[in-house]
Amino acid sequence: MGRVVGIDLGTTFSLIAYMDAQTGAPKCIEGPHGSALCPSIVSVDADGKILVGEPARLRLLTQPDRTIYSVKRLMGRGVADIQSELAIFPFRVDDASGDTIRVRLGDKLFTPPEVSAHILRELKTWAENYFKEPVERAVITVPAYFNDAQRQATKDAGRLAGLEVLRLVNEPTAAALAYGLHKQKRGRVAVYDFGGGTFDISILKLISTDEGEIYQVLATNGDTHLGGDDIDNAMMGIARAGIQKALGVELDSRGEAIQGLRKDLIRAKHDLSTAEKAEVKFAAAGKTAALEFTRADFEDLIRPIVARTMQPVKLALADAKLTPAEIDEVVLVGGSTRIPLVRKTVGDYFGRAPHCELDPDQVVALGAAVQADILETGVKTMLLLDVTPLSLGIETMGGVVAKIIPRNSTIPASAQELFTTGVENQTGIDVHVLQGERELAKDCRSLARFQLKVPPGPAGLARIEVKFLIDANGILQVAARDMRAGTEQTIEVQPSYGLSDTEIERILEESIDHAEEDLAERQLIEARTEADTILLATGKTSGDPRAQELSGEERASIRESAAQLRAAMAGTDYKLIRKRIDELNEVTMHLAEILMNSTLAAAVQGKRLEDV
Amino acid sequence: MPIARQREDRAEHAEGLKCWACKAPASGSHFCGVCGKIQPLPPGMDYFEFFGLPQKLSMDAGSFEGQFHKLSWKLHPDNFVRATEFERNLSLERSSELNDAYRTLKDPIARVEYLLLKLGLRKEGTSKQQAPPELLEEVFELNESLDELRDARSAGGDVAGLRGRLEAAAANFQQKLGDVDAELAAVGKEWDAALDARADDAKKQALLARMNEVLNRRSYIRNLVAGVQKELAEA
After folding, report:
1. pLDDT confidence of residue B10
2. At A170, which helix (H) or strand (E)?
3. Touching check for B43 and chain A: CB below 8 Å?
4. A145, A194, A569, B186: which has the fewest C-beta neighbours closer than 10 Å?
5. Average pLDDT of chain A, as a whole number
6. B1:A420 CB<8 A
7. Which residues of chain B neighbour A468 with C-beta distances below 8 Å?
8. How does pLDDT run across A516-536, given as a tens digit for each residue?
């Protein structure tokens, strides 16, 4: 069956967690570098080998043209959408991409879901090394305010990483779940989630029923392009101006120097959460500039960014028909909520001290692990009722959008629309599906276009019923039915952004090239697990008094073989591990016989005694 | 182009239905009474029926929420992650219907609109945009003030004074909106009483027609208030 995990696929960091059966509490898994935080950074080396996380972060400084960070900002978006970000982020978007984003890392092109898939794959490996068994199913979290295309892109990334995505869960909802478990909270809760690249606010009601706890989201709002990244970029603006003034150097926005500066600025930002001032040194052309940030400077700089988070907060409360005073608890999630100004702003607005007992970096992954466990085991102790963040509509005459599923509807949600022809012998009806709150189609997010087929006939005779359904992942499904003929109609939905099914198939096929590598990885895990078992057994039996029957020579060769197996386990050659296991098995054969015989003898004797 | 849905008669949808799994006679309820499997939605079942409620307009918010949570617990796709694709789809169908019904019925205005839609008195997304006769004079004045405001903004006039007048007018119409809501609630009570008394069709049709008229008036006034607020926000 394998294990099931919860994954927080973040802008800056990603985490993987599981439900610990022993403690009944969710737990994050640490990677090889001793941290549960995997930097969401991917790098491709000259041989085409992919590095993820900490090693990729180091290469951000040395090989910026082969390394990408904050790829979450590109998920589910088109080339036209990201022009303003290209000025700030060193994304190398290939010109020949058309409207599908493809970023260049060295001499290879990747779509954002492919880059994210590498991050997911890395986390999956962490978990497989930890459990020593395969991990095949996961719950992945997304910002609550992600639209359909962004959700679909995340789901695609999971599929490309070889994971069955059991459910996409909204990040603030996952956090609420972890907090609810932690504190047994009741009442109305506001989750303020300010991460590396996205901001979400969700208002929930926690209800105890006879069956169990229900977490009902009343309203959600946010900004999928507002986060700690923006704070870094604001600091970068000040720093570049300072460097220009002190050293007369204009920094190349895609160069290596700027990545080093960026790293130092982020450290300064972290320091300013506790210190009153922080300094960043920058050397160029034989001179060094010292840039000083005081807490007050920093707060003035980020005040407009923090203020931008409060508009969605007000809108979410208005949609939930609540006032700030009616909120019982406020929960802070995401690394950016470590900033004192953020805590103060949120606390002042709600008139109560926000909760931050759980690690704001880990809480989302922990909640995802809880939900994954519920879905996998079928033992339901709680239920999440989430909402769709944006209204779903269809384009009508004059480019006006008719809303068919309002925002903040509990999902799954659906709407039926009946379509007919406007002119005689019309053979198709074009349907354009959009997401957003604006009145005109051009101001909303285009999700998909498709054409309904109609048999030729007089105008207005056709009756095609289309069912639009937003599933529990917040992803749109469309089905059509010809009411006159009584037949289902299959619809070829062309997504406006993102990968088509054919493209995903192609990428998956290409990744079979890597399957050999993956297989080797799995075999390595299995070999190590087996080695662990045999070493444990050898250790136990060697201490058994009956082992004294062995000769000194035999005991020495067992010790020698065990040491060699341990040495092989430290490497990655699974064939060598297997060979050493066989060797150890061989030299312990006599020991096993001795133990077996005496056990057997005891058993037989026991029987006789009983018979007597 | 989308068109309005045809009237559907509320009927005994469950008649002749059988459980898809064990073939036991099905009552139209969410799960088979014999084998416990989730059942398809009977065609034409309305939102009231889905919740096991009569087609009445007053309802107890607390018990309605409670029923919503109970049904969510049973029908949500979380329960069917490991079930067959067929059952997963049934859960998706039932739980989306549950949420659609919840969204519609919990809002008193949407509830009346839905009832009228189901009983064939109203078409989806339509409402008469004619000014109710008793409001004609006030609407006329309001439109004049709006014109003046636009002129004042482009030509430079007494924007502040006009703003005050418009705000007062908007407050006046807001007040009327409250009155209309009260009127709608009163007719709703009459409707519930008529159902209890098994009143004849003529009486019920008359009540439905009144509700329809009140709803149209309401939607007219609401658009008016929204329009004025938009102008004021821009001024």
Report:
1. 38
2. strand A164-170
3. no
4. B186
5. 87
6. yes
7. none
8. 566 677 677 778 877 887 888
Among A350, A385, A420, give the residue marking a domain's end: A385
In a domain, A505, yes or no: no
CATH of the domain at A258: 3.90.640.10
Q: Which of A209, A374, A409 sits opposite B78 (nearest CB)?
A: A374
Q: Which one-letter DSSP state was computed for residue B154?
A: H
Which chain B residue is nearest to residue A404, measuring alpha carbons?
Answer: B125
**Residue A73: strand, helix, or coil:** helix
Q: Give catalytic residue positions of A.
A: 8, 72, 171, 193
Residue A372 in any domain: the answer is yes
- Summarize pLDDT for A129-175 with one digit per residue, the tens: 999 999 999 999 999 999 999 999 999 999 999 999 999 999 999 99
Same domain, A589 and A541: yes
Residues A77 and A144 in one domain: yes
Q: Which two tokens stand for residue B118?
A: 């189901």
**Nearest by CB: B103 against A211, A214, A409:** A409
CA distance B97 to chain A (A): 7
A293 and A341 in a single domain? The answer is no
Separation in Å, CA of A19 to nearest CA in chain B:
17
Do A54 and A201 lie in one domain? The reply is: yes
Give pLDDT tens digits for A480-516.
888 888 787 777 666 666 666 677 667 666 655 555 5
Choose among A82, A99, A98: nearest CA to A90: A82
Question: Any alpha helices (H) in A145-227, and if so which ranges?
Answer: 148-160, 171-183
How many contacts does A have with B, using Cβ atoms within 8 A?
A: 84
- CB–CB contact B72 A214 (8 Å): yes
**Residue of chain B nearest A473, judged by CA positions:** B77
Classify residue A541 by burial, with Cβ atoms within 10 Å: 0-12, 13-18, 19+: middle
What is the span of the domain harbouring residue A266?
Answer: 228-302
Is B132 an interface residue toward A (CB < 8 Å)? no
Domain CATH code at residue A380: 3.30.420.40
**Consecutive H or E run containing A415:** strand A413-419
Mean pLDDT of A37-41: 96
Burial A491-522 (b: 16+ CB within 10 A, else e): bebebbbbbeeeebeebeeebeeeeeeeeebe
- Is A472's CB within 8 Å of B76's CB? yes
Closest Cβ–Cβ partner in A380, A409, A419 for B2 = A419
> How many C-beta neighbours within 10 Å does residue A219 have?
22
pLDDT band at A606 (very low <50, low <70, confident <90, very high): very low
Is A383 in contact with B73 (Cβ distance < 8 A)?
Answer: yes
pLDDT tens across B205-223, in order? Answer: 999 999 999 998 888 888 8
| Whether residue A494 sits in one domain with residue A570 | no
Cα(A490)–Cα(A426) distance, rounded to whole angstroms?
A: 19
- Taking contacts as CB-CB distances below 8 angstroms, the residues of chain A near B5 are 416, 418
Helices A552-570 and A574-587: angle between axes, nearest 10 degrees: 170
Helix A340-350 to helix A295-319 angle (10° resolution) is: 40
Are the beta carbons of A414 and B76 separated by less than 8 Å?
Answer: no
ipTM of predicted assembly, 2 dp: 0.85
**Alpha carbon distance B62, B60 (integer Å):** 6
Residues of B in Cβ contact (< 8 Å) with A378: 79, 81-82
Write out the two tokens for A13.
């960091």
Which pLDDT value is given to residue B1? 43
In tens digits, chain B (235 residues) has pLDDT values of: 444 443 343 344 555 678 998 998 887 889 998 999 999 998 889 999 999 999 999 999 999 999 999 999 999 999 999 899 999 999 999 999 999 999 999 999 999 999 999 998 776 554 455 667 777 777 777 777 778 777 777 777 777 777 888 888 888 888 888 999 999 999 999 999 999 999 899 999 999 999 999 998 888 888 888 878 877 777 6
Which residue out of B45, B71, B97, B100 would a mutagenesis test of the A interface target, given it has the greatest number of A Cβ atoms within 10 Å? B100
Residues of A with CB under 8 A from a CB of B: 166-167, 207, 209, 211-212, 214, 216, 374-376, 378, 380, 383-385, 394, 396-397, 402, 406, 409-420, 422, 429, 460, 469-472
